[in-house]
Design brief:
One of its GO terms (biological process) is hydrogen peroxide biosynthetic process. The protein contains 14 helices and 12 strands. By secondary structure, it is α/β, with parallel strands linked by helices. Strand 8, helix 10 and strand 9 form a beta-alpha-beta unit.
């Protein structure tokens, strides 16, 4: 009897131990330890249509994948025996101090991820002491986001001036919306909601496509040209940054027309598929502007080491888009803060291990690209 009781107790202890281990694994897996893990959490939290709207790219999604993969082909050349007991990641962008060179990219319809949408994202950016660029496709108006917090905000239209925004970001690579096949298959529909200019229609396009695509195309001006940039500059006192520059030719023109900065971007691989990964062209753009204006790079940043590589190639800052949305979907405002904080902590560690105590210490000699390796074999 006592042997049977002991055996039952042993079995019970083993079962309880297994349960505790399983619960521990569930707890561990639900708490992300890096930015990439937020993607799976967001996929579980969102309807398929909304997740694929955020995660998807244009056509074959070659550029979407290339944006991340290109970073993986750049290696870091660390320097040793450097006193890295104190690391300073702070910088300035257009005269505004921020805690790190990690900024929030413009992306639309944050309310699909969380009811507080861009309001939560803006508060998280303010708490992280960084800059948020508000999209034209925001779920909340420029005034509502402006009233939500005291973050330094850049915006994509001149209406921002009277709402206290500090710069205008003009997207120049979007004369028409790219072909996003996941949205077409899902018949992507968004409910009516306030945005910067009115209401998003809920009517599905008659040809069976995405109503979002039809709406966005109806708001775009395919005749936008460099003359319009000059005109916009003439009617606002705010600095204008051009987002979507990926060639040295356009970078030089941007300087000539008086842009205050350029953002190297392919729209997150959502516009022209088979355009180059942004990190592969950032150096070309940096050389073209010759230090006259800041260069910011957007697309594919998932690790602090990615930020380090972008800075080493000459960028002054990076923009983070999808990870912000994934953090918002998974954990709301706190999730956005976590995403930014994880990248900051990883950047700080990368700087320490590479022998850099401040951003100005990060130089071209700290990285080796595929082109460098090819040239070394000649």
């Amino acid at each position: 009897m006592s042997l049977t009781l002991e055996l039952m107790n042993w079995v019970l202890d083993m079962v309880l131990q297994i349960i505790r281990e399983l619960l521990g694994k569930v707890t561990m897996s639900s708490e992300p330890v890096n930015v990439n893990e937020f993607k799976a959490l967001a996929e579980r939290a969102l309807p398929k249509m909304y997740f694929e709207f955020y995660a998807g790219g244009a056509e074959d999604e070659h550029t979407l994948k290339a944006n991340e993969e290109a970073y993986q082909r750049i290696t870091i050349r660390p320097r040793v025996l450097v006193d890295v007991s104190r690391i300073d990641m702070s910088t300035r962008m257009l005269g505004y101090s921020i805690s790190s060179p990690i900024m929030v990219a413009p992306s639309g319809l944050h309310k699909l991820a969380n009811p507080e949408g861009e309001l939560a994202t803006a508060r998280a950016a303010a708490a992280s002491n960084t800059i948020m660029i508000l999209s034209f496709g925001s779920s909340y108006s420029v005034e509502e986001v402006a009233a939500s917090c005291n973050a330094v905000r850049f915006f994509q239209l001149y209406r921002a001036e009277r709402s206290g925004y500090k710069a205008i970001v003009l997207t120049v690579d979007c004369p028409r919306m790219g072909r996003r096949e996941a949205d077409i298959k899902n018949r992507m529909i968004v409910s009516k909601q306030k945005n910067v200019e009115g209401l998003v229609s809920t009517e599905v396009d008659a040809d069976g496509g995405s109503n979002l695509e039809a709406y966005v195309n109806s708001t775009l001006d395919p005749s936008l040209s460099w003359k319009d940039v000059a005109w916009l500059k003439s009617i606002t006192k705010l600095p204008i940054l051009l987002k979507g520059i990926i060639t040295h030719e356009d970078a030089r023109i941007a300087v000539e027309v008086g842009a205050a900065g350029v953002i190297v971007s392919n729209h997150g691989g959502r516009q022209l598929d088979y355009s180059p990964a942004t990190i592969n062209v950032v150096e070309e753009v940096v050389h073209a502007v010759k230090g006259k204006i800041p260069v910011i790079v957007d697309g594919g940043v998932r690790r602090g080491t990615d930020v380090f590589k972008a800075l080493a190639l000459g960028a002054q800052a990076v923009l983070v888009g999808r990870p912000i949305l994934y953090g918002l979907a998974a954990k709301g405002e706190h999730g956005v803060k976590q995403v930014i904080q994880m990248l900051k902590e990883e950047l700080e560690l990368a700087m320490a291990l590479a022998g850099c105590t401040s951003l100005k210490d990060i130089t071209r000699s700290h990285v080796r690209t595929e082109r460098d390796r090819c040239q070394s074999m000649l």
